[in-house]
Amino acid sequence: MRNILLFSALAFLTAVSAQGKPEWADLGTYTQAFIANKTFPGAQLAVVSSGNKVRYAGVFGSLTFQGDQFYDNVTPDTIYDIASLSKVVAATSCTMKLYEQGLINLDDKWVKYVPQANNNGKDAITIRHLLLHSAGFAPDYPFYDVYANVTKEILLNWLYTTTLDYAPGTATVYSDNSMVALQLVIEKVTGKSMWSYAEQEIFLPLGMNTTRFLPAPWDKCAPTLTGYPHWRNEIIRCAVHDPTAFILGGVSGNAGVFTNHADLILFMTMMLQKGAYTTPDGRQKRMYQEATVTLFTTAPSGLPYANTRALGWDTIPSQKAPCPCGQDFTPGQSFGHTGYTGTTLWGDFKQDVAFIALTNRVWPDDGVSVPTKNRILWYRNNLANMIVERIKATSQESLFMQ
Ligand SMILES: *[C@@H]1O[C@H](CO)[C@@H](O)[C@H](O)[C@H]1NC(C)=O
Ligand SMILES: *[C@@H]1O[C@H](CO)[C@@H](O)[C@H](O)[C@H]1NC(C)=O
Ligand SMILES: *[C@@H]1O[C@H](CO)[C@@H](O)[C@H](O)[C@H]1NC(C)=O
Prior knowledge:
This protein has 12 helices and 9 strands. It is of the alpha+beta class and 402 residues long. The chain has a single domain (2-401), classed as DD-peptidase/beta-lactamase superfamily (Beta-lactamase, 3-Layer(aba) Sandwich). Helix 2 packs antiparallel against helix 12.
């Protein structure tokens, strides 16, 4: 009954917006409805355009549900476990730096940097394959039910010795292993942990002060799990939710970054401006050449298999419905990624807009008591549609004002 009422309220609101003026504040009302039906306990949202223009930003709901432990308001300082957004914010961004500095070549063999993996056909894997998720790796380490006994050494040794599911460059299978493999390259070339390299080259220059692996301020993190799956047997707060990243000690190419919407506003503005950014003290600088951003955010054509993936970044998927970027992001001009914990980044160069949506939809038990996976897909999809609608309305407005 409550859900039906909420849904009607939302339908009413959307109808009004469609006829009248779509307001940015509608994004908040929309988000609150998903909080009310327990899709997630809270959220941070932001919409940006180039020129450091924040079109909309808001924080909603709470860290956990009413009656749960750690029940407290989400604030602008709340820190989210962004899960697979780490693949773009950290691993891909570091790779873009190394590529631009000429320290790696995209067609370098992976085993050039990780010689202990030179077996079972893995000598055919290139860095480009890792970025395109076409290296042949299985999606994940075969955890089955043995989480508790898997160490970093066991997991890496499996990666070095595993057989591939398909020949490199002949198919695409989204794989956490590809991003762990990429992390090994980054760490070999730089002689540093991927975290310290990302901090030095990306996070600190952009002024992303909160962004880090292994976050310290426990009270600021939105918790992700109460102890399920059982093998961790503890509340998961300020510790990475992802099992691979957890086993690797929290710093991983596939997951492990914690951040907030304010920091991701800085990051997505830089991406939308194809590498140009304003330093914290107001200077205009470049993080990447324009061509590098274009290369990593464009799905290459002419591959021997159907592909919509760019390098590290994703683009509009051809089939997967509902699309995280809705129906109105520009084909060939938009890029993004999603994270399992309920996080999304998507940008559109042509329409000059990017959005950030952070939630902890996995609280309290990874969608067991309330299945949230399907719900977050529709949340993102419609959110993206509402954002484009409002961007269009805003440009109409400025047209009239001229
Ligand atoms: C949760 O609420 C949103 C917004 O009203 C609605 O679209 C969605 O269908 C609801 N989901 C469920 C399972 O109630
Ligand atoms: C982990 O190893 C211990 C000791 O070898 C064994 O008793 C236990 O069953 C293992 N746990 C799992 C989940 O495999
Ligand atoms: C982030 O760090 C920069 C440089 O140290 C500082 O100027 C800025 O005020 C910091 N921002 C926040 C939000 O703490």
